[in-house]
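#lab-general

N.A. 3:47 PM
ok so I finally got the sequence cleaned up, no stray characters, all 250 residues accounted for. can someone with queue access submit it? mine expired

B.Y. 3:52 PM
send it over

N.A. 3:53 PM
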Amino acid sequence: MRVAAIYDIHGNLPALEAVLQEINEAEVDQIVVGGDVVPGPLPKETLRCLLDLPVPIQFIYGNCEVAVLEQMAGLDLSAVPEQVRPIIRWTALQLPEYQPLFAGWPMTIRCEIPGLGDVLFCHGTPRHENEIFTRLTAEDRLLPVFEGLNAAVVVCGHTHMQFDRMVGRTRVVNAGSVGMPFAEPGADWLLLGPDIQLKHTPYDLPKAADRIRASDYPDAADFVARYLLHPPTEAAMLQAFAHAELKYAR
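B.Y. 4:20 PM
back already:
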């Protein structure tokens, strides 16, 4: 059994299409979508693409789906950073028919993968979708988060940077981001079974930039400049996340 884990797509349909082509060539048995499918430039088209796939697919929610659901319900968004709130509102307006879909996604899923054992998929950590840690986070801070899970492997995302590390006896692997990877431009994902491969898929960035600029996304130009063509460096993001580790600030 082979499983593809794709996380943090953020409405970047060109990146998703490139990854799905490689997933098709890998002949996987299942796809796990690890949250934060939205927001992003092409949210509806991205969801349709995923839901139309012929391969069995499972979803879990990320912090962004939680924020979009809260907006759809008319709840207070004060916990969401102010600069992100207009995008959350725009996304909610684009996707009213997907509210039941988002509401039905679980926080975690498990599956047994030969060669790996019991694998648990979450977005941030198994206890909260918005919890932050990186490959540099001290192990003693992470042991309470990952002990007692009865999982050989935990796959996460949220911070948009791939890593593969041990926390106690648990192998913890970050899938990175399909749509907004930090460090090298392209699309990051995982192929699981019988071991774990950290995958990086290049795609036609100028063509993707043109598609995104032509969308109705209010932050299209900024998305292209800051996340598609010139993503922040891993060093810069590790420093930024060091101030927010293991916090629940959505």
